[in-house]
Amino acid sequence: MDDVLRPLLVLGGTITLSLVTGWLVDRALAAADARDPHTRLWHLLRRCQVPLEFLIGSAVGQMAYDTFNVDLRRDAIIESGLAAVAIFSAAWLTVRAAGAVAENSLARYEARTTDLARVRQFRTQLAMLRRVVTGVLTVVAVAVTILLLFPSLRTLGASMLASAGVIGVIAGVAAQSMLSNLFAGLQIAFGDSVKIGDTVVVDGEWGTVEEMSLAFLTIRVWDDRRLTMPVSYFNSKPYENWSRGGNQITGTVFLHLDHTTPVPELRKRLGDFLSGREDWDGRHWDLVVTDTTPTTIQLRAAMSTRNADDAWSLRCAVREELIAWLRDNHPYALPRLNTSPAEVRPRDAIPHETPADRPIPGQSPGPDA
């Protein structure tokens, strides 16, 4: 009876102690958050409750297993499992705590500055650092677990370290693509070439950088499609970054109209229309004739906006407004295709020429000619 009751009491006490400790820590963080509303750190640290409970439970379970002389059939497996849970819980807790500190730092930085470009750059760098820290801690946790729980592999580990040069060359060749993306991701994060939230044009697709990892970058296209591309692409091929150097952008609209178009009136109409638009930032605008053909002229309307989204909506609105205004007020200015024969000059409008009026070959015209 004692052999059954003792393990149950140890298991129940361990679970109860871990849950109660985690709840007390969570209540303490909630109280600290209520006392200091100017920071989000205490609220974000409350995410650490679950990994903290696992860590406390595995650590207390190991101590109680030896203290109360719990004797089960598979002691080695149980102790190894508790040790593995403790190692991975510690890594999990470290990742959660580091993420809370990073998000709190980002929130405080956003509150201190109005430079959206710097905020996006800081967010990108923090996201990349969190992924690097998570990957490193995962690898370390797996390695420590293997070395501690499987002593027979320590000799193998020593021999692998002795041949680290050869293994490094082989791994470098085999994982060349992965390593190139890894270093490209770090270079992009700290090189300020592209950031989360930037508006980019890649392979003819216009969208916003939504997520960035160590290997891939996700772009949300304007129609809510997601374009996933390797990070190394942005270090090897050209692309457009409309947010580089600021969010302000100038939108353009091209119109092909007839030669009889009243350009000054159309220019005035554009200025009146832009003055009532909230998506025009008021910096500058113009309407000029940029090209001409035998049948039409090309007009370019340019207007400044705060960001790429406003530029797109304003371009569509200006195009629609100018065409509708010409249709209602100057329909002859719209381009047309002549499908009927051209009118011939009437014969009575041609001056009648007599033989006396014809010049004699070789004779210079008189003073009245």
Describe this structure in words.
By secondary structure, the protein is an alpha+beta fold. It folds into 3 domains: 2-185; 190-241, SH3 type barrels (Roll), CATH 2.30.30; 249-333, Alpha-Beta Plaits. It has 11 helices and 8 strands. The protein has helices at residues 2-35, 41-45, 49-67, 75-112, 116-149, 153-162, 164-174, 176-191, 233-236, 263-274, 308-329, and strands at 199-202, 205-212, 216-221, 226-230, 240-241, 249-257, 285-292, 297-305. A hairpin with a 4-residue loop joins strand 7 (285-292) and strand 8.
- Poorly predicted runs: none
**Helix-strand pattern, N to C?**
HHHHHHHHEEEEHEEHEEH
Helix content: 55-70%
Beta-strand content: 5-15%
Shape: elongated
Distance between the termini: 139 Å
Q: Report the biggest beta sheet as strand number plus sense, adding barrel if it closes.
A: 5 strands, antiparallel
The structural class is: alpha+beta
Number of strands: 8
Radius of gyration from the alpha-carbon trace, in angstroms: 37 Å
Structurally, the number of domains stands at: 3
For the biggest β-sheet, the strand order reads 4-3-2-1-5
Question: What's the quick description here?
Answer:
The protein is of the alpha+beta class. The protein has eleven helices and eight strands.
